[in-house]
Specification:
408 residues; mainly alpha; 3-stranded antiparallel beta sheet
Length: 408
């Protein structure tokens, strides 16, 4: 009883309730944009300024990311392209595109495109299928995760993360009470999520699938799903996860390297050891921007998966503490926005996007510090990668739009 009251208090804080007149057969019919527009006309809900703490937190992370991507990728840029600014230019272009999208979504109310969400979600599934087709999907580093032309590509899995949160928030807001039942309520969502996870795993991209699954569980729980149902699903998925890990040789080696990287220091444990060297070398104040030694072909993927280690080496303990503080601030303001959202749909949207970005940051930092097995997950807003940066900024744009209605 106490657990239900705690969760109910969160939803009440989100204003995730509907008028009794809009309820049929115990199912909440969320009026979305029409309800908010009527409340705005009545002066009940007003669109104000966005959460500037959240806004400047995102901008700071993006600015830090551009600086550190330039520093971490300089050696690789010279080696493969003969131009130290190659990755800097590309990241800056994606940042400009992403910030434009963030500003647009920040000013375009999230209820206006709600009817398009099922189609956008279906399109993301089509993209996940296309990327698996030889000759269509681009193979890089042993994985078929990219679609595009030439060197310009994007990852459909990143798009799927964004659209899945939209889909869950939209559908869960429409079927409030059904989610309490396992087969009639939770079942359809598990089927849709299972298809999404399966396609992402097929690429293969275990890290993205696990991160998205974690965010989906949080959204389902907040929406009213039974805790024991979710706990049962979590326990039942452990054997599946174990099979997925041991079925591929590189995954098994990564897991064993996580347990003891020094058992194979020049092989599977190399990445973790070099990341720890980088963090240890930085000390309190770091070696200075641009002066990392590990990025000189010692640390693989210094601009993506292990950029946090480069930050630790060049900016020291205080630099890594700043990154942690920024992501903590993002999570704090994001969940604060969710609790003050004007309706159930926007509450679940805010909670979902806050969770998936925060969880991705935790996983990336955990990998760089040797606290988690290597997953290939980037650091949101910071790591090099156009798809990840674009989708993260679009998610931030939705969050900032909802914050304009929080506590109004």
């Amino acid at each position: 009883m106490e657990r239900k009251e705690n969760r109910a208090s969160f939803l009440v804080g989100c204003a995730g309730r509907c008028h009794l007149g809009n309820s049929r057969n115990g199912i909440c019919i969320d009026q979305g944009w029409f309800l908010v527009r009527r409340r705005r006309a009545q002066g009940i809900v007003r669109r104000g300024e966005p959460d500037y703490i959240l806004f400047f937190t995102v901008l700071t992370l993006v600015a830090l990311g551009i600086i550190m991507v330039f520093s971490a990728s300089m050696v690789k840029s010279l080696r493969f392209y003969g131009n130290p600014y190659h990755y800097l230019i590309r990241q800056s272009m994606w940042a400009a595109l992403g910030l434009s999208g963030m500003f647009f979504l920040m000013n375009y109310d999230c209820w206006r495109y709600r009817n398009l969400i099922p189609y956008v979600y279906a399109l993301s599934l089509v993209l996940l299928v296309l990327v698996l087709i030889p000759g269509v999907g681009q193979m890089r580093d042993g994985a078929r995760r990219w679609l595009g032309i030439g060197s310009l590509g994007f990852q459909p899995a990143e798009v799927a993360k964004f659209t899945t949160i939209l889909f869950l928030a939209d559908m869960l807001a429409r079927t409030k009470d059904k989610i309490r039942h396992f087969f009639k309520g939770l079942g359809p969502y598990l089927l849709a999520l299972g298809i999404t996870f399966g396609l992402i795993l097929k690429e293969p991209d275990l890290g993205t699938a696990v991160t998205l699954a974690g965010a989906a569980v949080v959204v389902l729980y907040i929406s009213g799903a039974n805790f024991f149902h979710l706990a049962f699903l979590g326990l039942a998925s452990l054997p599946v996860l174990y099979h997925v890990i041991i079925s591929e040789d590189y995954r098994r080696k990564r897991f064993l390297a996580f347990l003891d990287p020094w058992k194979d220091p020049t092989g599977s444990g190399w990445q973790i050891i070099q990341a720890l060297y980088a963090l240890g070398t930085g000390g309190l104040f770091g070696t200075g921007v641009g002066y990392s030694r590990q990025k000189w072909s010692y640390l693989p993927q210094p601009d993506t998966d292990f950029i946090f280690a480069v930050i630790g080496e060049e900016l020291g303990f205080f630099g890594t503490a700043l990154v942690l503080l920024l992501f903590f601030t993002f999570a704090w303001r994001g969940y604060r926005t969710a609790m003050a959202a004007p309706d159930r749909y926007s509450c679940l949207l805010a909670a979902g996007f806050t969770t998936i970005i925060s969880l991705q940051a935790v996983v990336n930092i955990g990998v760089a510090t040797g606290s988690l097995p290597i997953t290939g997950i980037t650091l949101p807003f910071v790591s090099y990668g156009g798809s990840s940066l674009l989708m993260s900024l679009l998610s931030a744009g939705v969050l900032l739009n909802i914050s304009r209605y929080a506590n109004r």
